[in-house]
Amino acid sequence: MNISTIGKTLGNCMKGAFIGLLAIAAVSCKSDEKVDTTVPFDPTRPVTVTGFTPESGGYQDQIIVKGSNFGTDKSMVSLKIGGKQAVLVSVMSDKMYGFVPSGAFSGEVEVTIIDKDGKVHSVVSDKKFNYERKSVVGTLCGYQNENDSQGEVWGSFDICSGFNSEGCMAIDPLYPDRVYIAYDRGEGFLAQLDLEKRESSRLMSSNKFQNQRLRNIAFSNDGKYMLVSTDRADNGTKSTSVWIVTRNADGTFSDKSSCQSLVAYKQCNGVAVHPVNGEVYFNSYEGGQLFRMNLDDYFKSFEPTEEGEEPKEWTGYLDDGAFRELFKIQDPSYEFQTTIHPSGKYAYLTVINRNYILRTDYDEVKKEFTTPYTVVGFNSDLSHGGWVDAVGTNARLSRPYQGVFVKNPEYEAEGREDVYDFYFADCTNFCIRYITPDGLVRTYAGRAPSTNGNIWGTEDGDLRQAARFRDVTGIAYDEKRDMFYVLDHNNRRIRYIGKEMENSIVVPDPDDNENGDDTPEEN
Asked: Whole-angstrom Cα distance, residue 191 to residue 254?
């Protein structure tokens, strides 16, 4: 999947497709003008399928099925492709016109007619339709029942639930089939999605992190250690900001893993590791500060000292020189997360509660980030967020949350210096958006039109014409599968964006909002 080019095709909609079908129908009728297409269904004659055009395609593509004795009453006719119900536009006695349904992987073309007496007449084509997977939004796991009482259940993707809190996601750099979720709630814990086994589990309990809020996850460059940020202020400036978790002997993380305080300050919103030089960056909501610490200093504190020297205890405190402040982004109470470009040359600071994103460039001599500047969005309070795709400060965001850099093959082919787009969860815009290296903000998935006018929902399907989210926070990119995973916590689901999956969860989605008065305000 070429992620950058998907947006170019999002303007294709059902209305245009319908017009296209009518044009095809006109041509087809002209070529078969000797055939009477108004003959009603005859229950004494067999229904036949002689072919279909095109013979291959994907979700929402147009299809013409040819045969005989279809009748003219569309209400009597059913067309299934790959066992999935297709949308029919019109039916004539020798042909029918419709749209390829989602997930028609097996390709059987089946026509069923129920006559006036209720008798079923069905036929399956000898030839199969070649279904081509398209890039869509799907449901990986999780669900929400009518009363939102499904609770927390871990296990198979087919039955699991519990994705009911804000949080961030991360893919294990050494074991890319493992996706981790850090839950940002009063007693935060870590969950794991095993993509190979299709199982979910509660990985590390909240007491490993002293029952505090967890903000995000990062890894040391060698992948041996997980860093987990904690948002707390119960011990003043000596409240643990970042924990360092050591893998078990078998490479896993669990409640048996060693979990130690790495650095302590207060009200940390996130942690990041420089991908080239390995230093650690974390922040504080207290004054909008960004801090820097050398991970090597932590490990050196455990090395044997020369004879006669007193061992230096690692406290992780600012007063003991464990880290230092680089800058303040603006004012106190600015909540932000740091995402470093894979080259290490710059980072984006996603300011969650002020609706904009900053960029900070890396000083390769000093090995530290410099004073940031606005790259997209506008500094405003949460009540003044907006949704505008535009360049730089003309763009409007609404509670932007976690982001991830993704390589764009087109940029590589063009020989550009920066070959990465930045995808991020735009929480209360209910969508996934991205920023090009030129500073252009585009909406990638979500906010599909609906009959009830809502821009939020649980619908899967086409990235812009069908899919909807609600209050997304976490996002991770699976390079191995060329797929995004999204924590859609208000819908209690983990969604995916990528090629259609045969074993994704299918959940019926009513078009009308069923959440009573619990509806978000328009942005």
From this structure: 10
